[in-house]
Amino acid sequence: MQRKGILFIVSGPSGAGKGTVLNQVMRDLSGLSLSISVTTREPRDGEIDGVHYHFRKNEEFDEMVKNNEFLEHVSKYKNRYGTPRTGVEELLDAGRDVILEIETKGAIRIKSIFRDAVLVFITPYSSDELETRLDSRGSENSNSKELRLKIAKDEYKKMKHYDFIALNDDINVCVETIKAIIIAERSRLTRNTNAIERYIPSK
Ligand code: 5GP
Predict the structure, then answer these.
(1) Range 174-195 average pLDDT
(2) Cα angle 68, 81, 49; round to 5
(3) Which is the most buried residue in 11, 105, 111, 187, by most CB within 10 A?
(4) Residue 139: what are its φ and ψ, rounded to 5°?
């Protein structure tokens, strides 16, 4: 019997470099799918509907909440974000490993539903470095640097709920760290009980 997919949840403050790291991980490892969230925020330059997010109006988001279409959903920076239920569940049932790149509140909520989900927190080593990156991002979104730093502080407080920390001072090191976590989780015997059966058949 094919094993069920593993759910990986990756979080980290704005400026941690999650997107760049995950794109590289997706390029390097097979059998992985990145879940596409639904959001009410406006697309940024270069963002494509159905690729980066499913961009929806507030009323459409409300309707999806009403129809129980989200595994979890939150409001952040005055925008709303939600993880679609069907896509994720179907992929896991088909044996594909799924990555959710979501903030900490949603991550903890998902962990309470999927107890064997793996939570990974990406961050630069120092908060000074985070601040420098937020400076260089400048006007990428309309929120003040102060607001983003405050939100980052709240996210660091939730770090204790995570299974792994992946430091992102050097992108290549961070990519290798995430890949190592994924490969190790794939190799866990508790996720490969069929392997035992292969060597010691129960008749
Ligand atoms: P951005 O607007 O910069 O793309 O994302 C803002 C924050 O929302 C990031 O921390 C991102 O991880 C988080 N986020 C994106 N999609 C979801 C989602 O479906 N659920 C939750 N809880 N957070 C999300």
Answers:
(1) 95
(2) 100
(3) 11
(4) -90, 20
Residue burial 132-142, b: 16+ Cβ < 10 Å; e: rest: ebbeeeeeeee
> Residue 81 Cα, ligand 1 centroid: separation in angstroms?
6
* pTM for the predicted model, two decimal places: 0.93
Q: Where are the domains of the chain?
A: 7-35+96-199
Residue 155 Cβ < 6 Å to ligand 1: no
Q: Does the CB atom of residue 34 touch ligand 1 within 6 A?
A: no
Q: H-helix or E-strand containing 38?
A: strand 38-39
Quick one: 7-35+96-199 is in which CATH superfamily? P-loop containing nucleotide triphosphate hydrolases (3.40.50.300)
Quick check: CB of 40 below 6 Å from ligand 1? no
Tell me, what's the pLDDT at 196? 85
54 within ligand 1 shell (Cβ under 6 A): no
